[in-house]
Amino acid sequence: MQYQSYPDTLTTEQELRQIYLFSCLNDQQLARIKQSVRQIQLEDGEYLFKQGQRTEHFFMLKEGHIKLLRLSLEGAEKVFEVILPGQTFAEAIIFLPKSIYPVSAQSINSSVLLSFENKIFIDILKESSATCFQLMSYMSQRLRMWINEIDNLTLQNATHRLVNYLLYQVPGEHSNVYEFNFSIPKHVIASRLSIKPETFSRILHRLNREGLITVKGRTVHIHNVDRLRLQTVNTDSIIE
Amino acid sequence: MQYQSYPDTLTTEQELRQIYLFSCLNDQQLARIKQSVRQIQLEDGEYLFKQGQRTEHFFMLKEGHIKLLRLSLEGAEKVFEVILPGQTFAEAIIFLPKSIYPVSAQSINSSVLLSFENKIFIDILKESSATCFQLMSYMSQRLRMWINEIDNLTLQNATHRLVNYLLYQVPGEHSNVYEFNFSIPKHVIASRLSIKPETFSRILHRLNREGLITVKGRTVHIHNVDRLRLQTVNTDSIIE
DNA sequence: ACTTTTGTTTGATCTTAATCAATGACGATT
DNA sequence: AATCGTCATTGATTAAGATCAAACAAAAGT
């Protein structure tokens, strides 16, 4: 893990301002954040933190990918989430005094992050009701996300989860063909979806055979987004 | 669903003060809450709200049990959580404007609840940084809870989940024998643990055969808590 | 270019828990 | 006490996905 002091340029301010959680801060508050910022470089496979460690920082990913995971006693790995560039993470679990990270964070490829001190951010939260509300609404969304996640795991089967994942990659406007690349290895996506790599591969194969998609390496070509959508359920917003 | 106006007695204030989220409010703020409180009576099986409905209230359960659930398209029911007396619920999802309940809430047995208006509580949150922090720390805990839930679903098997549930019923100090009653039907617990009733029954039977527990009706007798603990993993606080 | 490592696919087999079906137990109602 | 409905248990069978094993492909190191 390579720490770098953070260059004091105009771009700095702009970069911090773009972060959702900091968008309501005044100049003085932002200056305090800025002063505690450190930039971190991670190699492929390197850990940022491990489950059970004290939480003293939260992070914003600038480049690369971070997977949040847990290991079972038998050594099985479950990926809970894959962080993409632009996202902040580990900021929602800082409220229990002496709290610990509930998951480990490991770099996929090499990554660049900014790290922020919890203590300083909490002090600012005490002054900024607007920022409290931003954080609360963010936490709200995440609570909802986990509920959908459990829905997927318990009421949906492996194919549904995988199709859901594929559809999640498609921007809203497309309804016909769409092509994208997996930005991370397939076995990581598989673990994220709680599917074994072998099963993951077989499901893709079957969707191919059914004429819904074509997969070549990391490239996925969806022949008809709407038809693929028929394979799943919109898990949110069901009345009755 | 039977609405009742809320009696204006001294007990009222005390009852509201005991609610964790209201413990930091001043008299004037509590009075505003009090004015919007309604008491609700639910029959066995009656719904308090359904998934997809607009969230305008949150609740505190006084008596009975409430299950939070989702239905799959095929009609399968998944219980996400069982609310016990004293708990507040549906308060963490009110921050998205025009937000909707992510689950349905149905009464087990008959229940008595207090309902509070989101709008009024949000106004108070804007004034009370302390209450914001209470809510945020509450949401933090719940986020962690869902992560543990997914750990249980993906890294643990049905027996582990059931043993975890049994151990969760045991207050900390006991390490030898302990006896308790299931307060809700077994099939609800089964769904809560994502296990079919048949499998649930078979696992209890097996634990019995292994000399770990004795089950008679709703009564569970654990012969040796520590020995039962060996069957599982403490999912939280694992470093390395 | 060749070797090694890592990741992916394919086939055969196994395991866990679900499903299907029937019976039994219990509580509530009459 | 008899009946009904709900809930729980038990047995037989099935199915989804995991595991094991091997081949294959692609990337990385030498």
UniProtKB/TrEMBL annotation, chains A, B:
Transmembrane segments: none annotated. PANTHER family: CRP FAMILY TRANSCRIPTIONAL REGULATORY PROTEIN, DNA-BINDING TRANSCRIPTIONAL DUAL REGULATOR CRP. It comes from Candidatus Thiomargarita nelsonii. InterPro entries: cNMP-bd_dom, cNMP-bd_dom_sf, Env_Response_Regulators, HTH_CRP, RmlC-like_jellyroll, WH-like_DNA-bd_sf, WH_DNA-bd_sf. GO terms for cellular component: cytosol. Residues 21-125 form the Cyclic nucleotide-binding domain. Keywords: DNA-binding, Transcription, Transcription regulation. Signal peptide: none annotated. GO terms for molecular function: DNA binding; DNA-binding transcription factor activity. SMART domains: cNMP, HTH_CRP. It comes from the Bacteria. The keyword Ion transport does not apply. Residues 156-226 form the HTH crp-type domain. This is Crp/Fnr family transcriptional regulator. PROSITE patterns: CNMP_BINDING_3, HTH_CRP_2.
